[in-house]
Amino acid sequence: MSAAARAGVGAVEIDSVVKVFKRNRLAIQALSETSVDFREGEFVSLIGPSGCGKSTLLKLIAGLDTPTSGEVRVGGNPVRSPLRTASVAFQKPTLLSWRTVLDNILLPVEIRDGRPSRADRAYAHELIEMMGLQDFASHYPKELSGGMEQRAAIARSLVTRPELLLMDEPFGALDEFTREDLNEELLKLWEAEPKTVVFVTHSISEAVFLSDRIMVMSARPGRISDVIEVDLPRPRTPEIRTSAEFNELVRLGRISLEAAKAEHETAAHA
Ligand SMILES: Nc1ncnc2c1ncn2[C@@H]1O[C@H](COP(=O)(O)OP(=O)(O)OP(=O)(O)O)[C@@H](O)[C@H]1O
Ligand SMILES: [Mg+2]
């Protein structure tokens, strides 16, 4: 059996990864030695203070940047170049201004196959509907609000049905109701088409609602300082947000995040 088959195509291994950014003589350590595995088909959230290296970690997994030391493996294979099986929803939407919403969403399919098939176009329209953009498929990015651009970028990240989905604060620019709706849509999609999701958020309750596990990162240089198992039943419905178990997990998340910040402050004063 190949290493990929053993690990599962969507399994992620972060093995002793360190990331230091060098600019002129200045070195910024974004990640201190980090080792963690994400299981195939798992929904994992990363939470942590601003600048702790969450986006950096996603880029290393996607193969968009390389670790200073250590190794990232996906499906058992070392990541050395941008991964074809992964899709990233970036923190900023990065749509192409000269393409319509529909054509922006179809871009990853064009890059992969040359021309989108009829089924691809149908799926793109399904995603547009799911994101509430059905009246804007032929609009250009400058005609959209910030949250609408973000939703178009999320649809673009889903259109190839990736085995590994890396989402960087995808719902950060949205109002609470839209965000909760899209949380539910995302879970439905994930349940229908199993995939490994690594989801960055600043919202503890969003992380609890979505995840199997929450990784709490300490302030820069980041590392995983705590792991919270979210053993709430699935499928998760909106009502779960009012349950005692849900709110207890949110409370635990808050305590853990506070501890992660304090740990850094102590280190900074040492
Ligand atoms: N390309 C880069 N060149 C130099 N420094 C970088 C680069 N990318 C990130 N950094 C630095 O690495 C650190 C971690 O950045 P990163 O974007 O990963 O944080 P983050 O946890 O995603 O923060 P936020 O919650 O604000 O999005 C920061 O100090 C940032 O300045
Ligand atoms: Mg970030």
From TrEMBL:
Gene3D superfamilies: P-loop containing nucleotide triphosphate hydrolases. CDD domains: ABC_NrtD_SsuB_transporters (cd03293). The keyword NAD does not apply. It comes from the Bacteria. SMART domains: AAA. PROSITE patterns: ABC_TRANSPORTER_2. The keyword Iron-sulfur does not apply. GO terms for molecular function: ATP binding; ATP hydrolysis activity. Residues 12-244 form the ABC transporter domain. Keywords: ATP-binding, Nucleotide-binding, Transport. It holds the Pfam family ABC_tran. This is NitT/TauT family transport system ATP-binding protein.
